[in-house]
Amino acid sequence: MTEQTRINFLDLIPASFYSVHRDIGECAHTHYALRGGRGSCKSSFVSLEIIRGIMADPSANAVAVRKIGRTLRESVYEQLLWAIDSLGTSDLWDSRVSIPELVYKPTGQRIIFRGADDPRKFKSVRCSQGTMKFIWYEEADEFSGIREIDMINQSLIRGSGSFFVFYTYNPPRSGTHWINSVFAVPRADRLVHASDYRSVPEEWLGSAFIAEADYLRHSDPVRYANEYLGEITGTGAEVFTNVRQETISDEQIDSFDRVYRGIDWGYGADPFVYVSAAAEGRRLYIFEEFYRCGARYSEIADAISSLPHSRGIITADSAEPRSNDEMRARGFNIRAAKKGQGSVEYGIRRLCELDCIVIDPARCPNAAREFTQYRLEPDGNGSFRSGFPDRDNHTIDAVRYALEEKFSRKQIGVIDRKRLGL
Predict the structure, then answer these.
(1) C-alpha dihedral over 276, 280, 283, 289, to 10 degrees?
(2) Which is more confidently placed, 77 or 378?
(3) What values do phi and psi take at 247, rounded to 5?
(4) pLDDT band at 340 (very low <50, low <70, confident <90, very high)
(5) Residues 414, 384, 399, CA angle at the centre, nearest 5°?
(6) How far, in Å, are 146, 177, 372 from residue 234 at the CA level?
(7) CATH node for 3-227
(8) DSSP alpha helices (H): ranges in 244-342?
(9) Which of 7, 131, 170, 380 is 20 to 30 Å from 155 by CA-CA measure?
(10) Nearest Cα to 210, choosing from 220, 222, 200, 219?
(11) In the chain, which residues fall in CATH 3.40.50.300?
């Protein structure tokens, strides 16, 4: 492309996307998760990148995907036409509305559009020349999960050279929605970028848009934060809103002054869980787990012994003294949890009061899943039942036991439920 076109391209995107544009130019990543609120220009940016990229590489083609095929023409198709026109290249493109399809006239390169109503249909998508270098999932949160998208990518990412897969979406309110959970986990070939309308020149958005945003900012700040700022605000049912999933390095673990260890005994269909955690100030780090259904004592002992940070006091569920005795006989320093009336609510609320619970999802996938998906139960009247549900909380219980001494150095006993707001 010409130098003049390059300058015009930069004039068409907000400054907040300059770093992403440079990253694409350097082929630094394959996957680009671009989340943002209304008016953030994420879709405009992707459409410009695709048009520019195809015109710069004669072997490049593209496919734009929506969950529902009938939404393609009014969304991504029109968005790409806007990009073609904005770059001043309308005379170089042939738009075929009935198919729909866009063709770059000088070379015959194509942009095709597909609905993901049946991901298996993508196996038949082929290029007469080159590769599907650019793949765009618009409104990616509408898909049923990452496995559906992975299936499509496996069909489209074929051949040599670089590929660029864009996921544009407004983050759902719930932190447990699959797209929020998946893109919270670091991945070497993926860049996650957040944007909102405040970085976009006001004249691009118009006074009416700004007025609507300002009205919602004052009338419903939580809804404004989600819809316009692209923040994950939660639905109100999430118990742990202070969880962060990130890598915890070996060096960081070795630097912890003290490690807390806990066991939740699983019986029947419930799993046995062992966890290791550390606290620094008001931050908790969960970095080691063993999670297994139907595990025998010998298997449990071998698994825990193999973990680097498992030597020391382990606070275990006291519901079954025989199990703790079995572990003591195998050389483990087991201390029975004191528990007591109100101890579940007390321990969970103490965890909720921490500034941050950092969980390494690679080391502790089950802890990451349970802590992020643990929710209050609806009461059927638009509110929630009192108390915390006793299900899908095995790693949570193990962490409570591990931190029992830290949270209270005396017998927990009867807790003042009124003081805890229960």
Answers:
(1) -10
(2) 77
(3) -70, 135
(4) confident
(5) 50
(6) 20, 10, 11
(7) 3.40.50.300
(8) 250-254, 297-305, 321-329
(9) 170
(10) 200
(11) 3-227
- Phi, psi angle pair for 279, to nearest 5°: -120, 130
In single-letter form, the type of residue at position 384 comes to F
Q: Are 293 and 269 in contact (CB under 8 A)?
A: yes
- CATH 3.30.420.280 spans which residues of the chain? 243-407
What are the Cα distances from residue 233, in Å, to 60, 172, 373?
A: 39, 8, 14
The sign of the torsion formed by the CA atoms of 235, 237, 243, 244 equals negative
Considering only CA atoms, which of 418, 264, 394, 284 is closest in space to residue 345? Answer: 418
E-assigned strand segments in 250-409? 260-264, 271-280, 283-293, 313-316, 333-336, 356-359
**Between β-strands 101-104 and 93-96, what pairing exists: parallel, antiparallel or unpaired?**
antiparallel
Asked if residue 201 has a cis previous peptide bond (ω within 30° of 0), the answer is no
Tokens of 158: 């074929």
Answer for the pair 166, 83: CB distance below 8 angstroms, yes or no: no
Residue 352: both structure tokens together: 């909720």
Per-residue model confidence as pLDDT tens digits over 244-281: 899 999 999 999 999 999 999 987 788 999 999 999 98
3-state DSSP: the chain helix, strand, coil percent, rounded to 5?
Answer: 40, 20, 40
Q: What is the pLDDT of residue 68?
A: 87
CB-CB contact of 32 with 24 (8 Å): yes
Q: Choosing from 139, 238, 288, 370, which is the catalytic residue?
A: 139
Are 223 and 216 within 8 A, CB to CB? yes
10 Å Cβ neighbour count for 390?
A: 8
What is the pairing mode between strands 333-336 and 243-245? unpaired
Number of CB atoms found within 10 A of residue 325's CB: 11
The residue to which tokens 């490690």 are assigned? 259
Please report how the helices 42-56 and 78-86 are oriented relative to each other, as an axis angle in degrees rounded to 10. Answer: 60
Q: Could you confirm whether 139 is annotated as catalytic?
A: yes
Q: How far apart are CA 375 and CA 235, in angstroms?
A: 10
Would you tell me which CATH number, out of the four given (3.20.20.140, 3.40.50.10860, 3.20.20.70, 3.30.420.280), belongs to the domain 243-407? 3.30.420.280
pLDDT band at residue 124, thresholds of 50, 70 and 90? Answer: low
